[in-house]
Design goal:
heterodimer, A: alpha+beta, Thrombin, subunit H, Pdz3 Domain, 3 domains, 6-stranded antiparallel beta barrel, 6 helices, about 40% strand, B: mainly alpha
Chain lengths: ~325, ~180
């Protein structure tokens, strides 16, 4: 009995003497801390007039990516890297993705590295931002869904990552990292949504996926303004039943849900309920791939399209314009 | 009936509470027995005197003399022989003790109601300023208040330095339509 305290003391002082391995939870804690430490130098504070939020260093020579809506009407923008504040210039913003690029007069910054892997539902993520102005606040979460559409400030955003993170005011533009400390996305919005009768229900946080962040940032930096292609139509995936009725191949076709006024789609004669079956000589199968293809247009380009109207195939030529970013 | 039996009935007869046959027997006996007649007169006289007592007030000193007579029987040990100076001293001591107790209570209450030091409250204020909190305890030296409710001490609000931005999701549009 007398020896027991001595044994516990020895075991406590020399963990190897316990013969057990480090717990999984302890390992997880260490890995999360390591990711936060790795990401921290790339996370900056953004102040647009009296709004405070977050941003991420995109290039080592001073490009910073952040949320577009936060700097919409800003007269004066400041970016704080570590302890040093810089005046920032707004290069441009992509209203489709909600990504803006700022430029500060700093060199040898620590840019974020982007995850090359496709983000899946259930992926672990760590959000590092400036919640309530407190630098490098972090929260651990999982990606609850991909390809979500949300309505924020009257504008629709697509392809968003849904997160379970406790995102707080000031986290807008925060770094969403994967387990390797690479950027999975940029925090966009969160909060409660109206579920009818003016009742608010909790909603998860959303982030712009890394691929679209990179797309918008690269375009803005390359052209000095946002350049992306624009058809001016909304498309819906076609059901298998509709395909079989129309005699289409499996996976082919997309229904036109809406056509914008004065858009290339309108000029080409597309209308709601038409079925787009071919774009630029290729069958329309994957809407995500088609979205990348059209968005990737950097200058007005003529393309041939084929669509069905009343079961009758029609050929048309349209010119993909540059997105007016309205 | 003999004298002994008649004398048991005399009190009832004098009070008018005897039956008719008893009354006849008593009257027949006292008519021939002088001793029982005198006894009957005594009962009648006592009844008259008692009736006078009930109708009027008791003579002065009646109750005092009665109480003096029965007190020693009722409270035989409560009769303490106490001199006057001892009684007076005990009274003064009791009044003094009550005064001191009241003074102590007032002193304690005043200390409890004093506002805490500013530094104590500021240290407990929340950093986000969203909810003012009260210090859990004021200071360890301050006793618990038991005379009056504790005055509410509110911490100064820590204001947020600016507006922290995070757009609110207005809705999740139904459908899988994508814009091109």
């Amino acid at each position: 009995m007398v020896c027991q305290p001595a044994i516990f003391l020895i075991l406590g002082l020399f963990p190897w003497a316990q013969g057990g391995e480090e717990s999984t939870l302890r390992k997880l804690e260490k890995e999360i801390s390591a990711v936060v430490e790795k990401v921290r130098p790339s996370v900056v504070k953004v102040q647009a007039d009296d709004l405070h939020f977050s941003g991420v260093i995109y290039t080592k020579d001073g490009h910073v990516i952040t949320d577009a809506s936060g700097i919409d009407q800003a007269v004066e923008i400041k970016v704080t890297v570590g302890d040093r504040a810089y005046a920032a210039d707004r290069v441009d913003a992509d209203r489709r993705t909600g990504i803006a690029v700022l430029k500060i007069g700093a060199k040898e910054l620590m840019p974020a590295t982007f995850s090359a892997e496709t983000c899946k539902s259930g992926t672990s993520a760590i959000v590092v931002g400036n919640a309530l102005g407190m630098p490098s606040c972090s929260s651990f979460c999982t990606i609850g869904g991909i390809g979500r559409s949300i309505l924020v400030r009257g504008r629709k955003y697509e392809n968003m990552l849904q997160m379970s993170a406790a995102v707080l005011p000031g986290d807008c533009g925060a770094f969403v990292a994967d387990s390797a400390g690479k950027l999975l996305g940029l925090v966009h919005s969160a909060g409660a949504v109206e579920a009818g009768d003016e009742k608010l229900v909790p909603a998860p946080a959303f982030a712009v996926p890394a691929a679209w962040v990179k797309f918008s940032a690269d375009r803005i930096i390359k052209h000095g303004r946002m350049v992306r292609g624009w058809l001016g139509a909304s498309l819906l995936p076609l059901s298998d039943a509709a395909r079989s009725q129309l005699g289409l191949e499996a996976g082919v076709g997309a229904e036109v849900a809406r056509v914008e006024n004065d858009s290339p789609a309108r000029k080409a004669g597309l209308a709601a309920r038409d079925i787009l079956i071919s774009y630029d000589g290729h069958p329309v199968r994957d809407l995500d791939a088609l979205q990348w293809k059209i968005a990737g247009v950097e200058e007005p380009t003529k393309v041939k399209i084929v669509f069905l109207r009343n079961r009758e195939a029609r050929d048309a030529e349209t010119q993909i314009e540059l997105d007016p970013q309205k | 009936m003999g004298c002994e039996e008649i004398r048991d009935l005399l009190a009832l007869y004098a009070g008018g509470e005897s039956y008719d046959n008893e009354r006849v027997a008593v009257e027949a006996h006292v008519a021939v027995c002088a001793a029982c007649a005198r006894e009957l007169d005594h009962f009648r006289e006592a009844g008259v005197n008692l009736a006078r007592l009930r109708e009027g007030s008791a003579p002065p000193g009646t109750f005092k003399s009665l109480w003096t007579g029965v007190r020693s029987d009722l409270f035989p040990r409560k009769t303490v022989d106490r001199s006057g100076w001892l009684d007076a001293s005990l009274r003064y001591a009791a009044v003094t003790m009550v005064g001191i107790a009241i003074g102590v209570l007032i002193h304690v209450a005043e200390r409890r109601e004093a506002p805490p030091a500013a530094g104590t409250v500021a240290a407990t204020a929340p950093v986000n300023g969203l909810m003012p909190v009260q210090p859990a305890t004021l200071t360890p030296s301050q006793p618990r208040l038991f005379l009056r409710p504790q005055p509410r001490v509110t911490a100064p609000r820590v204001e947020l330095d600016g507006n922290y931005y995070l757009p609110r999701v207005e809705s999740l549009p139904a459908g899988a339509a994508k814009d091109f």
